């Protein structure tokens, strides 16, 4: 039989170019081991038996064990029928593991129907616990693309894709003393699910560049696979994206130095996606400009990131009535219009671009040969603690790590279609709505504005969208204006960037029968930290931490539950760009990012957001500095004092309330002042409360806790009167 197995192994190894990583982990697993693997295809058992250099027994489904054609595998390896509901079979298998046999089992209990992990049964965890055995995870990758999988029509199947087996370090289950057998079994099952999920991320590839990931996606799904589309209704394939990007990069001016920050001011259209990757190809780092932030903030952004060139479109500027913003930008940077670049296009550019796209090793990859995965890939902007703009620098590795973290938790497939109306300058719109989807082969429809509340549901219905990302404000507005059948095809509705209100959750559930998956993150974390998933969901939480994320909670005086959240992970940003050192990346001192949020983590790992430690408000998904609001009010009404506060708002997440010694403030005056200073209207409070004097601490500083309580009391009285 050894000779037969050797004869079978050689052609399989050659045809599928099988690679095995982590053999040292198999050698160090110990005397008792339960080998667990994802179930990608009917080849999985053969692959483990042939390429793991040790004798393995296999637990398989009885419906296959008793088939007549299993006589040869039974002679070659030790097979054991295992039904998850059969306690006697479980006991026998436990004894086999205790005796020192290495037993392999597929915890999913079936072949994947999505390409990702299916439900994880608790049985394997219980077996490892009862047998006191180490758990050795093995990732099988590539077999899902063979004709031996059950993914026909969902992935591009081919005869001999490359297959990789990755053996991860072993795990030992531990439990608190004195827990019941029922709780122990449940915890063992949960631990097994986490081990399998972490295995998928740990064995994934994210130490590469965005262009590498885009090329790899084309290889997996086929270059003729449609990947992006917008309102022009001219879908583009991977091949189209490669070719048009290679043409465009020839027309863009080369950066003054590798890694120069170049502003990109475009809406959600295919042209923005193409320009983003064209800039990557020439060695420039796209700095995504927020065209809604106002002139003052824009000037600060240009200075902070040391931006000397901005790429935009005349058509967009005219449609968005952004002439004043462009005039402001032109005072500090050179503005390039895509329409002007198009006039320089020649047949030579087209032919060269086609050649570079057809032969990436001679074109695309040569252009980016000096780019490292840890280099900056994009600059996004957020507000600082005092309202000054900060640049968040994300590396290629940051973005791709976050994509793989989400992939290991939520099953996507190429039959999905994402409707992305979130702007590219928002991390949720860029990383989740654009990179996550397209690099997974999911066709993405770009819609230029999330504010078209009536049109977006119609668009979702028209294109048969299955995925949509949004903030609470946007999702509530879409649901309010949509027909009950507009979202008939929707599989995933993912909420983030601000707290999801219960009214919004109920509206989607009652009107469309859809459960919203709420997540949590930050621009600095590329952006996702936690998310509820179809399999692991808990109402009122933002889900569990994604794999690969370390976290700690630090005690905050006065807070009895939870603590201030710090995270460390491959998806945590490369560093900040700050006003004091324009253009210079300032990394985190120890790699830990302070989220500024107070959170609690329950015994099952679900995270609840209790509040923010920093004085910020999140209005319509945008972070607003309360300090900056107070400064603006003091300049408008210098003879009075003000405290800016934040309160929950059913429509916009939070609303700004101004506690002021000004008796009759006129909001229009403040709006006019904000406009004159180039400040966003989002920073103008909606509600004003008059007090004769503001509460102070003994030190003379503002007593914000007392001010919040006082304002809450005054608002309650107004509501009841």
Topology:
Elements: H1 2-15, E1 19-21, H2 23-27, E2 33-37, H3 44-51, E3 56-60, H4 62-65, H5 71-76, E4 78-81, H6 87-98, E5 102-105, H7 123-130, E6 134-141, E7 164-167, H8 181-202, H9 210-221, E8 226-229, E9 236-237, H10 238-251, E10 261-264, H11 270-281, E11 285-288, H12 295-304, E12 309-312, H13 314-319, H14 323-330, E13 334-337, H15 338-343, H16 347-358, H17 364-367, E14 376-383, E15 389-395, H18 396-407, E16 417-420, H19 427-438, E17 443-446, H20 455-463, E18 467-470, H21 472-481, E19 492-495, H22 502-512, E20 517-521, E21 528-531, E22 544-545, E23 550-554, E24 563-568, E25 575-577, E26 585-586, E27 593-601, E28 607-612, E29 616-619, E30 622-625, H23 626-636, E31 642-649, E32 653-660, H24 667-676, E33 687-690, H25 704-720
Parallel strand pairs: 1-7, 2-5, 2-6, 3-4, 3-5, 8-17, 10-11, 10-12, 12-13, 16-17, 16-18, 18-19, 19-20, 32-33
Antiparallel strand pairs: 6-7, 8-9, 14-15, 15-25, 20-21, 21-22, 23-24, 24-27, 25-26, 27-28, 29-30, 31-32
Helix pairs in contact: 6-7, 7-8, 10-11, 10-16, 12-14, 18-19, 21-22
The CATH topology of the largest domain corresponds to: Rossmann fold
Number of domains: 3
Distance between the termini: 88 Å
Report the radius of gyration as a whole number of Å.
28 Å
> Main beta sheet, described?
9 strands, mixed
Tally the beta strands.
33
User: What ranges have pLDDT less than 50 throughout 5 or more consecutive residues?
Assistant: 697-701
Q: What shape does the CA trace take?
A: globular
What is the CATH-assigned architecture of the largest domain? 3-Layer(aba) Sandwich
Question: If helices are DSSP runs of H or I spanning 4 or more residues, what is the number of helices?
Answer: 25
What share of residues is helical?
Answer: 25-40%
Mean pLDDT: 89
């Amino acid at each position: 039989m050894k000779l037969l197995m050797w004869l079978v192994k050689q052609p399989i190894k050659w045809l599928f170019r099988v690679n095995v990583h982590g053999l040292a982990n198999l050698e160090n697993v110990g005397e008792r081991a339960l080998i667990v693997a994802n179930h990608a295809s009917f080849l999985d058992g053969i692959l483990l038996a042939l390429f793991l250099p040790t004798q393995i027994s296999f637990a398989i489904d009885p419906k296959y064990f008793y088939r007549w054609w299993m006589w040869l595998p039974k002679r070659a390896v030790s097979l054991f029928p295992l039904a998850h509901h059969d306690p006697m079979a479980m006991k026998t298998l436990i004894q086999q593991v205790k005796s020192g046999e290495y037993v392999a089992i597929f915890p999913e209990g079936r072949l994947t129907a999505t390409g990702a992990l299916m439900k994880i049964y608790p049985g394997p965890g219980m077996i490892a616990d009862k047998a006191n055995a180490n758990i050795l995870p093995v990732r099988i990758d590539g077999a899902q693309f063979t004709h031996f999988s059950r993914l026909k029509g969902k992935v591009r199947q081919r005869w001999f894709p490359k297959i990789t087996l990755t053996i991860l370090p072993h795990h030992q289950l531990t439990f608190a003393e004195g827990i019941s057998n029922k709780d122990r079994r449940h915890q063992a099952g949960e631990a097994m699910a986490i081990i399998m999920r972490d295995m998928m991320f740990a064995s994934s590839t994210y130490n590469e560049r965005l262009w590498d990931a885009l090329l790899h996606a084309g290889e997996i799904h086929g270059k003729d696979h449609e990947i992006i589309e917008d309102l022009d209704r001219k879908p583009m394939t991977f091949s189209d994206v490669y070719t048009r990007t290679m043409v465009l990069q020839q027309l863009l001016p080369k950066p003054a130095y590798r890694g120069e920050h170049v502003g990109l001011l475009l809406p959600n259209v295919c042209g923005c996606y193409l320009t983003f990757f064209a800039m990557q190809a020439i060695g420039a780092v796209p700095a995504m400009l927020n065209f809604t932030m106002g002139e003052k903030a824009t000037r600060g952004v240009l200075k902070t990131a040391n931006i000397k060139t901005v790429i935009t479109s005349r058509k967009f500027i005219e449609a968005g009535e952004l002439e004043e913003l462009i005039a402001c930008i032109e005072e500090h940077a050179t503005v390039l219009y895509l329409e002007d670049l198009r006039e320089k296009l020649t047949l030579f550019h087209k032919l060269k671009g086609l050649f570079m796209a057809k032969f990436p090793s001679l074109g695309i990859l040569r252009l980016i040969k000096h780019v490292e995965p840890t280099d900056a890939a994009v600059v996004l902007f957020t507000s600082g603690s005092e309202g000054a703009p900060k640049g968040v620098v994300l590396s290629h590795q940051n973005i791709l790590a976050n994509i793989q973290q989400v992939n290991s938790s939520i099953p996507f497939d190429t039959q999905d279609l994402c409707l992305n109306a979130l702007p590219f300058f928002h991390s949720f719109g860029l990383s989740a709505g654009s990179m996550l989807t397209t690099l997974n082969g999911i066709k993405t429809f770009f819609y230029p504005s999330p504010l078209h509340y009536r049109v977006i549901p119609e668009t979702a219905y028209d294109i048969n969208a299955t995925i949509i990302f949004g903030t609470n404000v946007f999702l509530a507005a879409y649901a309010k204006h949509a027909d009950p059948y507009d979202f008939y095809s929707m599989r995933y509705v993912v909420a983030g960037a601000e707290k999801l209100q219960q009214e919004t959750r109920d509206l989607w559930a009652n009107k469309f029968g859809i459960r919203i998956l709420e997540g949590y993150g930050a621009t600095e974390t590329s952006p996702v930290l936690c998310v509820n998933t179809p399999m692991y969901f808990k109402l009122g939480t933002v889900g569990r931490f994604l794999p690969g994320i370390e976290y700690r909670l630090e005690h905050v005086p006065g807070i009895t539950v939870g603590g201030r959240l710090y995270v460390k992970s491959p998806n945590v940003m490369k560093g900040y760009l700050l006003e004091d050192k324009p253009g210079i990346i300032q990394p985190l001192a120890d790699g830990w990012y302070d989220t500024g949020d107070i959170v609690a983590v329950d015994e099952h790992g679900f995270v609840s957001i209790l509040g923010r430690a920093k004085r910020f408000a999140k209005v319509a998904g945008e972070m607003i500095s309360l300090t900056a609001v107070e400064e603006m009010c003091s300049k408008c009404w210098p003879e009075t004092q003000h405290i800016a506060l934040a309160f929950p708002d059913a429509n916009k997440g939070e609303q700004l309330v101004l506690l002021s010694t000004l008796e009759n403030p006129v909001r229009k005056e403040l709006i006019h002042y904000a406009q004159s200073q180039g400040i966003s209207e989002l920073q103008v409070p909606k509600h004003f409360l008059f007090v004769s004097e503001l509460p102070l601490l003994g030190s003379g500083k503002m007593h914000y806790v007392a001010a919040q309580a006082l304002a809450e009391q005054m608002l309650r009285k107004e509501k009841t009167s």
